[in-house]
Design brief:
It is built from 4 helices and 5 strands, in the order E-H-E-E-H-H-H-E-E. It is an alpha+beta fold. Helix 1 links the parallel strand 1 and strand 2. The longest helix is centred in the last third of the chain and has 20 residues.
């Protein structure tokens, strides 16, 4: 059921009762507000992000998918998620103008759903990976395991 409202500090409690949330925002301040609220409510979530750049007339960038659980210390959350809005204007322009962003969004959505399925027990999950980052240049996927 869609809810066409911006999630903010004063309405984040409307998410209470959800068992899991997918977060896809483009502003660091919004990401921090949502992350703090979901942690306070004890709701696990996956946050996704895309970073873009232009190198010799070709797009370069990363697609990130990060699992945050209620047990995770806030200091660890801050290491995994970016709450700043640096270079927002340039990246925002590339994001809106580049048709190639659709495939990065699709990849990010797939990474997020696969991570959720491992967390939920549909797929094997022995490594406790909390973050996957796909890098366009080199077609490289790196994973970061959670603290044990």
């Amino acid at each position: 059921m869609p809810h066409p409202v911006k999630v903010e500090e004063d309405n984040i409690d409307e998410l209470a009762g959800f068992s899991f949330v997918f977060v896809c925002v483009d502003k660091g301040r919004s990401r921090e507000t949502i992350a703090r609220g979901l942690q306070r409510l004890g709701i696990p979530f996956i946050d996704t992000g895309i970073g873009l750049g232009l190198e010799r007339e070709s797009l370069d960038g990363v697609a990130r998918s990060t699992l945050i659980t209620p047990e995770m210390p806030w200091a660890e959350v801050c290491k995994l998620l970016s709450f700043g809005d640096d270079d927002e204007e340039d990246e925002d322009h590339l994001y809106k103008a580049a048709i190639q962003v659709a495939d990065l969004n699709a990849l990010n959505a797939t990474l997020a759903v696969l991570r959720w399925k491992r967390w939920a027990g549909f797929y094997r999950d022995n490594r406790n990976e909390v973050q996957s980052v796909y890098t366009v240049e080199g077609n490289f996927l790196s994973n970061r395991e959670g603290e044990q």
